[in-house]
Amino acid sequence: MKTLLPFFLLLFIISACTKEPTAEEILTSAIKAHGGDRVYNSTVAFDFRDKHYVGVYKDGKYELSRNFSDTLDNKIVNVLTNDEFKRSINDTIVALSDKWVASYSNSVNSVFYFLKLPFNLKDEAVVLTYIGEGTIENKAYYKLKVTFGEAGGGEDFDDIFVYWFNKETYTLDYFAYEYATSGGGKRFRKAFNQRSVNGWLMSDFINYKPKDLKVDIADYDTYFAKDGLKKLSEIVNRNVEVTYN
Questions:
Q1: Cα 137 to chain centroid, rounded
Q2: 8 Å CB contact between 55 and 63
Q3: Which among 233, 235, 231, 198 is positioned nearest to 45, based on CA atoms?
């Protein structure tokens, strides 16, 4: 029996070392790798395409603004908070129908949502599932699937996401999503130009669409290697500035 004890102890140690991490453990490491909890109380400003964005986050509250000028040189400002959406033209608040409030709100929110990944994966509506490992471009990744509860999940609660986190660095290097709005579709994004902006790891993304819509987004790591995805565009945020509140 005494000779068996070291053997069982060795098996226990090997098992503990090879134990797969939970989805929560992977996300915790990813948040640390991308800048840590201080990002939840921060102000970020950046330019995306021809518009200027500012996001202020403080103690669970947020104020997200988009500023631009139209073809008539009118100054337009959209502001989305936890409680409301407002649109002003030349500093005058304009009345909007519920349809346009929803449309403009979703448009502003989506830009900040993708910018703030993976931090917003801690939202209460997020249902996080570890679905195994994958390999993309000769690097190993943890794969997390995200769905949303209907309560608090917004209008797009039935969207599905899959995220690939680098096993060594825990950076978010790829993600895919399936959406139902505007006729539905699937997308895959690859991070590039990853850089630290005052401690917050920022990424730009190459945006792809699948050649075959029947392929599950969870299999896009192997599908990408088989040239099954077509490049659509680049998501580039310029002049990024970060401060902490």
A1: 21
A2: yes
A3: 198
- The amino acid at 134: G
Q: Check if the beta carbon of residue 187 is closer than 8 Å to that of residue 208.
A: yes
Pairing mode, strands 160-166 and 85-89: unpaired
Provide the sign of the torsion angle of the four alpha carbons 166, 171, 172, 174, taken in this order. negative
Q: Are 148 and 157 in contact (CB under 8 A)?
A: yes
Is the bond into 118 cis (omega within 30 degrees of 0)?
yes
Tens digits of residue pLDDT in 26-69: 999 999 999 999 999 999 999 999 999 999 999 999 999 999 99
What span, in angstroms and rounded, lies between the C-alpha atoms of 162 and 186?
Answer: 11
Which distant-in-sequence residues (6+ apart) come within 8 Å of 239 by Cβ?
45, 46, 47
Specify the pLDDT at position 158: 81
The C-alpha atoms of residue 131 and residue 175 are separated, in whole angstroms, by 13
C-beta atoms surrounding 172 within 10 Å: 24
- Given pLDDT bands bounded at 50, 70 and 90, which one contains residue 235? very high
Within 13 Å and on the Cβ side, how many CA atoms surround 89? 8
- Split at pLDDT 50, 70, 90, the class of 11 is very low
Q: Mind listing the domains of the chain with CATH numbers? A: 24-244 (2.50.20)
Strand partners, 172: 165
194-206: pLDDT as tens digits: 999 999 999 999 9
Q: What is the mean pLDDT of residues 93-115?
A: 96
As a whole number of angstroms, the distance between CA 47 and CA 66 comes to: 9
